[in-house]
Amino acid sequence: MNALRNKVQLIGHLGNDPEIVNLDGGNKLAKFSIATSESYKNAKGEKVEDTQWHNVVAWGKTADIIENFLVKGKQVAVEGKLTHRSYETKEGEKRYITEVRCNELLMLGK
Length: 110
Prior knowledge:
- This protein is mostly beta strands and 110 residues long.
- The protein is built from 1 helix and 6 strands; from the N terminus they run ββββαββ.
- The chain has a 5-stranded mixed barrel with strand order 1-3-4-6-5.
């Protein structure tokens, strides 16, 4: 059960082209966001669409695949774990971010 403690699986569409960062030592980082959507009917019977945005990061060979094959609008399935981090802006404000650290990727659709 330890493998299930922090596991995320999402299927969604890329909201933009991936951002690729080449780091010292030859390591590569890919950052992108995906949108997941669901629809339901509210109490008045009206269809409501709910879209959630998720930040995703990937490293190494997975980042290579993302760089070569993924573009805005592409549907993907990602599996990974949730991570939380903070950083400070140039103005000194502390910001917090939650992202999915992708360790498996499946390209869907055409």
